[in-house]
Amino acid sequence: MPHTYTLRDAKARLSEILDLVAAGVDVEITRQGEKRGRFRVVSADSGFGARQPGALKGRIKIPENFDDEDAEIISDFENS
User: Fold this and answer.
1) What is the pLDDT of residue 24?
2) What per-residue confidence (pLDDT) applies to 16?
3) pLDDT surpassing 70 at residue 9
4) How many Cβ atoms sit within 10 Å of the Cβ of residue 9?
5) CA-to-CA distance for 12 and 38, rounded, in angstroms?
6) pTM
7) Quick one: 60 exposed, middle or buried, by C-beta within 10 A (0-12, 13-18, 19+)?
8) Do residues 5 and 29 make contact, with C-beta atoms less than 8 angstroms apart?
9) Residue-wise pLDDT tens digits, 12-57
10) Which of 2, 8, 36, 39 pairs as cysteine with 31 (C-beta 3.0–4.6 A)?
11) pLDDT, position 36
12) Can you tell me the distance from the alpha carbon of 63 to that of 80, in angstroms, rounded to the nearest whole number?
């Protein structure tokens, strides 16, 4: 069962929460009695999110007409 903190307590005890999460304990954050989020370890050493410029080169195709105007969308905005 995860430890539960209110948003106010979580703000005040962030360091303690990070220590718990690093130890493998799930921590839930609540706001006005409703669950709003959960902290858990994904991986501390995997380099998750490490940026590699050019990693998608040649894998993404942007059509020539990508930024052409769409009359229907313009009409929706202008006539609302």
Assistant:
1) 87
2) 93
3) yes
4) 14
5) 16
6) 0.50
7) exposed
8) yes
9) 999 999 999 988 899 999 999 999 999 888 765 655 567 789 888 9
10) 36
11) 93
12) 29
Q: What mean pLDDT do residues 51-73 have?
A: 89
Taking the C-alpha atoms of residue 47 and residue 10, their distance in angstroms, rounded to an integer, is 26
Residue with tokens 């839930």: 28
Is the CA virtual torsion 8, 19, 26, 45 positive or negative? positive
Architecture of domain 3-39: 3-Layer(aba) Sandwich (3.40)
Enumerate the β-bridge partners of residue 27. Answer: 3, 39
Q: What is the 3-state secondary structure (H, E, C) of the chain?
A: CCEEEEHHHHHHCHHHHHHHHHCCCCEEEEECCEEEEEECCCCCCCCCCCCCCCCCCCCCCCCCCCCCCCHHHHHHHHCC
